Each structure stands twice: as structure tokens, then as C-alpha cells.
């Protein structure tokens, strides 16, 4: 199939305009990856490292920006229920006493196109003999549980299992020789204990985490929330870069330094002919008013009174733009910001109905997501990206 025709069939997934060249290159590598083709050296202009691409005059009509759209109510959702055995207790909001369930029935509808409904057998077929690993924090663990629950229902009990290896865990679909893995690395770079049990964040060290990422066919990264914890919730006591130690640093400066270390590792250690790399943008929190911004919310916001691009997203875009490796930015930030109804809130653990306690006596989680729920739609988007 000609390259441009194939790209049109993929609906030319979105990327920021300033990263469009790298994006077309990424899709070219994707086509070679899934069709078993080989690739010559990346088509780089040695003078300015810009990717040389062939663009279709129909690109503006065929490109679909998955990040722009609206939530539409769909009675055919969810795609699984909270009895999925791979869900953490903290995200099974129905089991934990949440009285409403409409948050499970919203589908993301991009402007001008659609995301195909998740097809478990189709997804597993495309992932046959491949490893897909989600790397990051507890929000990425949230997404991993969602993805495992989306596929596990079509696999006989005796033909699936979970294994553990250090900071990583893997769900195995044995008949497909496929593993869906999660690797804990909330800051991507290394956080170690130093003298006096102090936590030191090494902004230029990553190998202790990255050793788990080697040999994986599809890598999906996220890192944002741990960089912005403040005061008593700070993720570190000191920062270190080379031989220099810092008690404090602007969080976004530290974030850029850490992501740059990650980007250099990818550029030096990952072969784009063998591995696809995706960076998922930050999942917004709705925890103003001491965590009660998401309590008792029953439907998504329809729109924002004004658009706001988080600093973390700007930093990620800048780092990806400087990379030689074609990393795809999966932008879920705006679509997710509309879903303040989707958090566990007080239903993060089972509530004893016999107790005469007001819900506000319980701590409220406005960061993670109920499952089934919002991360299922991130995974539908991910499946669309990986679709032939």
C-alpha cells in the first residue's frame, strides 16, 4: 500500500503543528513495524536534524486531532464491569458504594472523526508476540488496569496470568504470546535514599529504571504529578545533578532536566525500527477546595470558559521536539480535564453504610479514576494509534 494511502487509512493521528514532521516520520516507522517491513537509516538532514518527509496535499483534511472533541453519552458503555479481577480496590467505585454509574457511560468523540470501539480480540491479534509496557506513576497503573480489563474477558482463565519482576508487573495472554506490562517509575529518573534516609532525586541518572524497558516493542510513558507535589508531599528532599546538590529548584526546571535525561536515553538506546515510543500527556487533577472539587459530580463539563495549557505539557512538547527519536505525544489532557465526575472521590474504599458518617469525613481522591471509566477511553485512543 502506498505510504500516503496508508497514512490516510490511519486517519493521520494528531500532534502539535510544530511537531508534525516528527509525527509523519513516526507513522512511517509504525507502518514498517506492523507490516514486518525493514527501514533504512532514518531520513535525517544532517545539517539541521529536521525530518525529511513527503506530505500529501490532503493532509489538512485527513488529519484527525483526537485531543479536540466532546464527551457523548453512550448506553452501550462500559466495556467491562467492576468485577474485573485485576482492578485495585481503590478504583472500584461501584463496589465501594458510589450511588451513580453514569460516569461509566461517556464516550470521547473527536471533532470531525471517531475513535473505534475497543476490540479485545483485534487488539490482542495486533499485539501477538509483542510486549507493550506502560511506564510511570499510579495514574499509569490506573491505565494499565483498564487495558488489562479491556482484554482479559476474551481469554480463558487458564490462559492468562500475572507475573512480577522488580518494579514491573506483566499480564500475559498466553495464546497470543502477548504481555501487557506496567513498570513503576513516577519520575522516570532515579529517586534514591541517601545519608540520614533523605530522598535524593538524581536528575541525570535513569538506568536503574530503564533496565526494565529494554527489549519492549511498545513503550508508553507518563510523568507529571510527582514533579509538582509540594510542601510535606514533596517527592524528594534534595535534587542532584552531577556532583551538585540542590535543596530546591523550580519544579518545571527540574521536570525539564529529568525529561531530557529520559529523552537522551531513548535517543541512544531505542531502535525506532523495532520499538514504538509514546508519551501520554498529564492527567489533570480536580482537587481544589481540599479535594472536594470532584465530590458528587455527576456529568462532564461541556466546555471551558477559557483554555489553559498546563506548564507540564509545554515542557513535554519542548523536550519531544528536540529529540531525534520519533516519539508520539498522546494528548489526553484537555479531554480528561472535562471529566471531574470520573474520580473516586470518597468512594476510594468501601464505605460502611451502617456508620452515620458524613461523606466529607472520608478523604477524597480527585486524582485517580474510577474503573470502568475515563482511562478506558485513553486506551481506545491508544488502540486506534496502534491499529493497522
UniProtKB/TrEMBL annotation:
Residues 115-384 form the Trichome birefringence-like C-terminal domain. GO terms for cellular component: Golgi apparatus; membrane. InterPro entries: TBL, TBL_C, TBL_N. Coiled coil: none annotated. GO terms for molecular function: O-acetyltransferase activity. The chain crosses the membrane at residues 12-34. Keywords: Membrane, Signal-anchor, Transmembrane, Transmembrane helix. It is found in: Membrane. It is a single-pass membrane protein. Residues 63-114 form the Trichome birefringence-like N-terminal domain. Belongs to the PC-esterase family. TBL subfamily. PANTHER family: PROTEIN TRICHOME BIREFRINGENCE-LIKE 36 (PTHR32285:SF155), PROTEIN TRICHOME BIREFRINGENCE-LIKE 9-RELATED (PTHR32285). This is Uncharacterized protein. It comes from Carpinus fangiana.
Amino acid at each position: 500500500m502506498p505510504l500516503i494511502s496508508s497514512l490516510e487509512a490511519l486517519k493521520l493521528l494528531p500532534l502539535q503543528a510544530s511537531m508534525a514532521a516528527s509525527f509523519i516520520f513516526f507513522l512511517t516507522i509504525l507502518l514498517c513495524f506492523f507490516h514486518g517491513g525493514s527501514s533504512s537509516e532514518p531520513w535525517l538532514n544532517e545539517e539541521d536534524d529536521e525530518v525529511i518527509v513527503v506530505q500529501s496535499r490532503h493532509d489538512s483534511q485527513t488529519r484527525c486531532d483526537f485531543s479536540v472533541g466532546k464527551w457523548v453519552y453512550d448506553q452501550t458503555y462500559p466495556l467491562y464491569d467492576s468485577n474485573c479481577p485485576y482492578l485495585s480496590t481503590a478504583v472500584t467505585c461501584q463496589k465501594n458504594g458510589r450511588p451513580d454509574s453514569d460516569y461509566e457511560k461517556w464516550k470521547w468523540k473527536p471533532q470531525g472523526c471517531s475513535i473505534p470501539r475497543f476490540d479485545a480480540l483485534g487488539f490482542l491479534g495486533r499485539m501477538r508476540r509483542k510486549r507493550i509496557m506502560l511506564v510511570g506513576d499510579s495514574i499509569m497503573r490506573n491505565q494499565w488496569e483498564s487495558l488489562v480489563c479491556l482484554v482479559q474477558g476474551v481469554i480463558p482463565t487458564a490462559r492468562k496470568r500475572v507475573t512480577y519482576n522488580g518494579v514491573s508487573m506483566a499480564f500475559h495472554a498466553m495464546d497470543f504470546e502477548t504481555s501487557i506490562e506496567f513498570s513503576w517509575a513516577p519520575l522516570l529518573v532515579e529517586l534514591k535514599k541517601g545519608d540520614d534516609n533523605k530522598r535524593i532525586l538524581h536528575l541525570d541518572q535513569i538506568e536503574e529504571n530503564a533496565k526494565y524497558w529494554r527489549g519492549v516493542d511498545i513503550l508508553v510513558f507518563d510523568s507529571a504529578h510527582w514533579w509538582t507535589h509540594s510542601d510535606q508531599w514533596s517527592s524528594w528532599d534534595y535534587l542532584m545533578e552531577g556532583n551538585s546538590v540542590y535543596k530546591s529548584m523550580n519544579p518545571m526546571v527540574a521536570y525539564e532536566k529529568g525529561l531530557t535525561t529520559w529523552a537522551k536515553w531513548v535517543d541512544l538506546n531505542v531502535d525506532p525500527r523495532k520499538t514504538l515510543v509514546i508519551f501520554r500527556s498529564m492527567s489533570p487533577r480536580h482537587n481544589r477546595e481540599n479535594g472536594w472539587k470532584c465530590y458528587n459530580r455527576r456529568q462532564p463539563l461541556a466546555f471551558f470558559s477559557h483554555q489553559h495549557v498546563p506548564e507540564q505539557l509545554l515542557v513535554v512538547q519542548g523536550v519531544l521536539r528536540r529529540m531525534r527519536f520519533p516519539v508520539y505525544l498522546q494528548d489526553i489532557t484537555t479531554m480528561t480535564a472535562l471529566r471531574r465526575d470520573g474520580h473516586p472521590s470518597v468512594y476510594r474504599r468501601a464505605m460502611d453504610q451502617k456508620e452515620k458518617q458524613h461523606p466529607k469525613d472520608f478523604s477524597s481522591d480527585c486524582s485517580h479514576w474510577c474503573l470502568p471509566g475515563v482511562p478506558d477511553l485513553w486506551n481506545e485512543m491508544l488502540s486506534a494509534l496502534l491499529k493497522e
